[in-house]
Design a protein that fits this description.
Layout lengths: L23 H11 L4 H12 L2 E7 L7 H10 L21 E7 L16 H14 L4 E2 L3 E3 L7 H16 L11 H5 L2
Parallel strand pairs: 1-2, 2-3, 2-4
EC number: 1.10.5.1
Subunit structure: Homodimer.
Pfam family, one: Flavodoxin_2
Length: about 190
């Protein structure tokens, strides 16, 4: 796609609401209301609007998303499109849509448990699933995680792909996770 991940003044095609002091969030919100965001953002927002389920497929980088995906979220899921104040979490502007994370890791599954060297995987899903997706109104499905595919045998990788393919066949029957602190951090 060659998507530009940097959120800059160039994202606003019209006049700024406050040209003497540039605030990206304020200007993107005003531009969203006036439909004066750049065409690459509007095209991506249209894809989200037309989707019932949005899948985010990415390799885990430093316990987060790659920079281009972070930039996509920053630019596309702006106030006025994905959320408003008020109008977030269960009332987010993308309510009624599902979202799922499909993640590959560089580490093995045993590294991502409470007693593992990296800690419980759900701890670092919180900002992404709750703080971004749920904040925008998405109902979030349990993530699909393929642990260390580059270190797995070809047979194990085929099993990972088959597992994901099988899950996709019944994904419309899944219940969203409760995006609440107890799901991520326990009682």
């Amino acid at each position: 796609m060659d998507f530009e991940p940097r959120a800059t003044r160039k994202d606003i095609t019209g006049a700024l609401s406050s040209p003497e002091f540039f605030s990206y969030g304020v200007e993107a919100y005003e531009a969203c209301k006036k439909r004066s965001l750049t065409s690459d953002i509007i095209v991506e927002q249209k894809k989200v609007q037309e989707a019932d389920l949005v899948m985010f497929q990415f390799p885990l980088y430093w316990f987060s998303v790659p920079a281009v995906l972070k930039g996509w979220m920053d630019r596309v899921l702006c106030q006025g499109f994905a959320f408003d104040i008020p109008g977030f979490y269960d009332d987010g502007l993308l309510k009624g849509k599902l979202a799922i994370l499909s993640i590959t890791t560089g580490g093995t599954a045993d590294m991502y448990w409470k007693t593992g060297v990296s800690g419980d995987f759900r701890y670092f899903l919180w900002p992404l699933q709750h703080g971004t997706l749920h904040f925008c109104g998405f109902k979030v499905l349990a993530p699909h995680i393929s642990f260390a595919p580059e270190f797995a045998s070809e047979e194990e990788r085929k099993g990972m792909v088959a597992s994901w393919a099988q899950r996709l066949k019944t994904i419309w029957n899944e219940e969203p996770i409760p995006c609440s602190p107890p799901w991520y951090f326990g009682q």
